[in-house]
Amino acid sequence: KQLITDLKELSSAVKQLEEKVNEYDTKLNSLIELLPNIPDEDVVEGGKEANEVIKVVGEKPVFTFEIKDHVQLGTDLKLFDFERATKLSGNNFSMYTGMGARLEWALINYFINEHINDGYEMILPPHIVGEVSGYTAGQLPKFKEDVYWLKDINQFLIPTAETALDNIFRDEILNESELPKKYFSYTPCYRKEAGSYRANERGLIRVHQFNKVEMYQYTTKEGCDKAFEELVSKAEKLVQGLGLHYRVSKLAAGDCSAPATKTYDVEVWLPAVGQYYEVSSISNVREYQSRRGNMKYRPSNGGKAEYMSTLNASGLATSRLMVALVETYQQEDGTILIPEVLRKYIGVDKIGRE
Description:
The structure is a single chain. The chain has 354 residues and is α+β, with helices and mostly antiparallel strands. The chain has 2 domains: 1-32; 40-351, Bira Bifunctional Protein, Domain 2 (BirA Bifunctional Protein, domain 2). The protein is 33% helix and 23% strand. Helix 4 crosses helix 10 (340-346). It is elongated, with a radius of gyration of 24 Å. The N and C termini lie far apart (97 Å). The mean pLDDT is 94. It catalyses: tRNA(Sec) + L-serine + ATP = L-seryl-tRNA(Sec) + AMP + diphosphate + H(+); tRNA(Ser) + L-serine + ATP = L-seryl-tRNA(Ser) + AMP + diphosphate + H(+). One of its GO terms (cellular component) is cytoplasm. Its EC number is 6.1.1.11. Belongs to the class-II aminoacyl-tRNA synthetase family. Type-1 seryl-tRNA synthetase subfamily.
């Protein structure tokens, strides 16, 4: 009888210890999940103040007349209707109208054609994904409050097409011969953008919903650095085709997103604000997302399966680019010239009053 009593007491003690272990495992995992990737050796420490401008292309536009900002231009030429967008959805939403909508669509078509010509495969993914997809991307759990969740469902609206693209091969093993995989995707992006807005960030500069074409690559460990340079070059080429003044900044470790080991930002000049704003962020994530999503490939030499490397880049985001376009190409008579590369998509060489 004593033995049975002792065994019951031991069993109860073991159960309590197991519960404690599970509790600490949960706490430990919740901390580990927030850990960022390890920065590349050439990435300096610090925050935004330590970012380095590594390239400047073109000259800031010079005007011989008093320029208007994109909000005023949009009102005069009926390109945007922010007042009615606010009526429909609340603050920091936009509505493109008439030639503004056509110019936006021309931009997207320009990007799509360039990516197809470069051999990238087009993907139109779901705009609603599950929590596991956000975890794999490295956006959850840290940024759980920054996305739009569906009520009573463990799904949310994508803040970027990257969230969908980096889950395509989750829990799968490819052959090395199938790599690299090069994709691009057009989607609206939905972001709460929690935090304060600067007084000059009016109109399209910072909104809850915007259009973006995203580039994404799956590569081998050896191929990811070359892929990074390719994505940077592609993003720059798109901005160059539009004839806009821009710079490339190499981000310090503290300004990189959690999954990134290295990030370059392509930033265009917004004349009315007098500042540079990012229109493409190119990141080498290496194995961070593939480890979270269990994405591997079989090496051609017959060795054990290895984790893929992944990279993402905007190609490009349109809202701030639209600001740069209409402000840079405004004329003294109030019209806006259309860059040559967009004219076949929009059908006119300038936008004027109706």
